[in-house]
Write a structure and sequence with these properties.
About 35% of the residues lie in helices and about 25% in strands. It is an alpha/beta fold. α1 packs antiparallel against α16 and α5 packs antiparallel against α6. The structure holds 5'-O-[(S)-ethoxy(hydroxy)phosphoryl]adenosine. 5'-O-[(S)-ethoxy(hydroxy)phosphoryl]adenosine binds next to α12, β20, β24 and β25.
Length: about 650
């Protein structure tokens, strides 16, 4: 594709002409796993009509200590994939490749924020994981025990996850940007027996006190017996005798050989907490066999992984993307991957591009919010670097606006790399809607078509399939291997949240529309979930942290569109009658939310309002608040409002 044709197309696409399509080059298609739309359609049809045949073929590319009796047993909403099988997912990520002769291949090429570098081959990874698995066993960790991991992006984060999986323990990774309070809640909900952390982490030249947060979270905790601490930044930390041990010490005497035991396919693999529409995050439970096959297959076809690729996903292991497309998917496929510890703009805005150039990254997977931040920072940071090693780009986490898509395509991809806009969720475990890079005609702004085995539809309230371009609820009509199995300890919430809207179907919580060709456009969340810089947060979580402050009587939180972050957090706060509304208090409340949830949840704006808009039955009318923050006024129906003066006061409050 030459430059002129791209620019002409680019112009058209910014006008939202949905007929502007970007197709992969013949060369790319020829070498891709999936080479043509005919092949995609044939395989997709097979995956829907004969899922057992399709998934058995994929699963057979992996190592099973005992094969399954049934590919799928489905009694909505309970799925059992590969029932009767025994496997070890860590063996598949690591041992399998050493046995296949990839022992000296780089598994992880790691760069720390200060610039320190490490290369870990598959053979070394096997030794590191085995040692740590033996250390966990020596600490008394047993199969099905929960282990909380609170780490920065060091290779040890993945090693800790893999070691848990290897011994059948259930990891629960908590993003390093979350607060002590958040760790505490997750420890309590999961009743974890061990915590794995670091003394601290680097972030934008500063440090994050991880161990100190763990200490605060452990006050009053009765279940945690062991805390293992990796030395990363060398800060002073308190080590509690008998409970706290250095990573370096526990592995010192641990044998470097560990035989991976086979676990049942439905053995729990991990819990990952995510936001929903109540104040309490949901512990999404994933199990082993189906998740392994799902992440392996999606990574292989969507990233078109080949033996000599250098793959880089910029997510953090604290999110589902870091689980499925850093720790599991790429290692299951035996690729070389880059792992970077720090911020994209440290020390300068060219850090990512310098890493791509230095290591010859060929596949790059990041978030639209990062792309928008790079656009803002200026092209000069990109222009300094040779990015010609790239052959494929990806995005995840939120809809990508066509302008950002085109910048990414031209400026980063040089007009030659397909972009896979991948839609999925913590709950789905693996990508669900996505282009396949060697065949799908791509349009900026759409995640395009369902992946193999995904039966996606857009339904209206009466369960009818919506007509083309009419928005409705996105559902998945059939089970898929990497699907969630439960909300940890709360089957009722699992059933109600995901399976209650339409009989036997999974409701994603997203609104979407489908064009005439079947391309799916994600419109955004239908529930009270915010998407701030690709991070998922519940409005209810932010609200409950605000009302926990002694000055606050009531709070309502809504999203406001934001140029870089996608969405910004706007709070309307009613203070207790004796409290003065000051700017100092706004700052205090902002920091308070940061302390309760984590820095990512700090509100962008706080407005003090004498009252919140409510219906006569006392329900907060968020619709009005959303309109108010978007447009500065309220034009919609306010007839159900209990007191219409509230609106005038609110309009005043957002101007202050
Ligand atoms: C949103 C992240 C549009 C969506 C993997 C979903 C997207 C939520 C996309 C899940 C995309 C994710 N286009 N929206 N390509 N990918 N989303 O659980 O609203 O952190 O429901 O998983 O992010 O967020 P989660």
């Amino acid at each position: 594709m030459n430059k002129t044709s791209i620019s002409a197309k680019a112009k058209k696409a910014t006008l939202f002409d949905e007929n502007t399509e970007f197709k992969p080059s013949k060369e790319f298609s020829k070498n891709a796993h999936i080479k043509s739309m005919a092949q995609y359609k044939r395989m997709h049809k097979e995956s829907i009509d004969q899922p057992d045949k399709f998934w058995a073929r994929e699963a057979n590319e992996l190592t099973w200590q005992k094969k399954w009796d049934n590919v799928l047993e489905w009694k909505a909403p309970d799925a059992k994939w590969f029932k009767g099988a025994k496997l070890n997912i860590c063996e598949n990520c690591v041992d399998r490749h050493v046995e296949a002769g990839r022992g000296n291949k780089a598994a992880i090429i790691w760069e720390g924020e200060p610039g320190d570098k490490r290369v870990i081959t598959y053979r070394q990874l096997l030794r590191d994981v085995s040692r740590f698995a033996n250390a966990l066993i020596a600490e008394g960790v047993k199969p099905k025990d929960r282990v909380l991991i609170y780490m920065p992006m060091t290779p040890e984060a993945s090693i800790a996850m893999l070691a848990c999986a290897r011994i059948g323990a259930v990891h629960s990774v908590v993003f390093g940007g979350f607060s002590a309070e958040s760790i505490k809640d997750r420890l309590e909900d999961s009743e974890a027996v061990a915590v794995i952390t670091c003394d601290g982490g680097w972030r934008r030249g500063g440090t994050v006190e991880l161990k100190a947060n763990v200490d605060a979270a452990l006050k009053g905790n009765k279940t945690v017996k062991t805390v293992i601490v990796q030395k990363r930044i060398g800060n002073d930390v308190t080590m509690k005798k008998g409970r706290d041990k250095w990573w370096e010490d526990v592995i010192a005497d641990a044998p470097a050989v560990h035989k991976p035991k086979g676990f049942n396919s439905e053995h729990p693999l991990f819990i990952l907490y995510t936001s929903g529409s109540t104040g309490k995050p949901k512990g999404i439970l994933h199990t082993t066999g189906g998740y392994m096959v799902g992440t392996y297959t999606t990574a292989k076809y969507i990233f078109d992984l080949k033996e000599d690729d250098v793959y880089w996903c910029t997510a953090d292991v604290g999110w589902i993307t870091g689980h499925s497309y850093i720790t599991y998917g790429p290692l299951l496929n035996g690729v070389t991957q880059i792992m970077y510890e720090g911020a994209p703009n440290y020390p300068e805005w060219n850090r990512f591009w310098s890493i791509i150039e230095e290591y010859g990254v060929s596949i790059f997977y990041t978030a639209p919010t990062a792309i928008r931040a790079f656009i803002k920072a200026g092209d000069e940071h990109v222009d300094k670097h040779d990015l010609s090693s790239l052959r494929l780009l990806g995005t995840v986490g939120e809809p990508i606006n066509p302008a950002a898509w085109l910048w990414y395509y031209e400026k980063i991809g040089g007009g030659k790399c397909p972009i896979v806009d991948t839609w999925w969720q913590t709950e789905t475990g693996a990508v669900m809607i996505t282009p396949l890079p060697g065949c799908t005609p791509i349009k900026p702004g759409t995640a395009t078509l369902p992946f193999f085995g995904v039966d996606a539809a857009i339904l209206d309230e009466d369960s009818n399939v919506c007509k083309p371009n009419v928005p409705g609820k996105l559902v998945i009509r059939k089970p898929w291997p990497s699907m969630l199995r439960n909300i940890y300890g709360d089957k009722k919430r699992y059933k109600d949240t995901y399976w209650g809207d339409y009989k036997g179907m999974y409701t994603a919580g997203d609104g979407a529309r489908m064009d005439k060709k079947g391309n799916i456009y994600i419109v955004g969340r239908l529930d009270d979930v915010l998407n701030v810089s690709g991070h998922r947060l519940g409005t209810a979580e932010v609200e409950s942290s605000l009302v926990a402050h002694k000055a606050v009587a009531e709070a309502a939180v809504v999203a406001k569109p934001h140029e870089v972050k996608g969405e910004a957090i706007v709070c309307f706060v009613t203070l207790k009658s004796n409290v003065k509304p000051t700017d100092k208090l706004k700052i205090e409340l902002r920091n308070h939310v940061g302390k309760i949830i984590g820095a990512i949840a700090k509100p962008d704006a706080i407005h003090f309002a004498p009252a919140l808009p409510k219906t006569r039955s006392g329900k907060i009318m968020r619709r009005l608040l959303k309109e108010l923050v978007k447009t500065g006024q309220v034009t919609g129906n306010v007839s159900t409002l209990e007191d219409s003066k509230v609106i005038t006061d609110l309009q005043k409050s957002i101007k202050e």
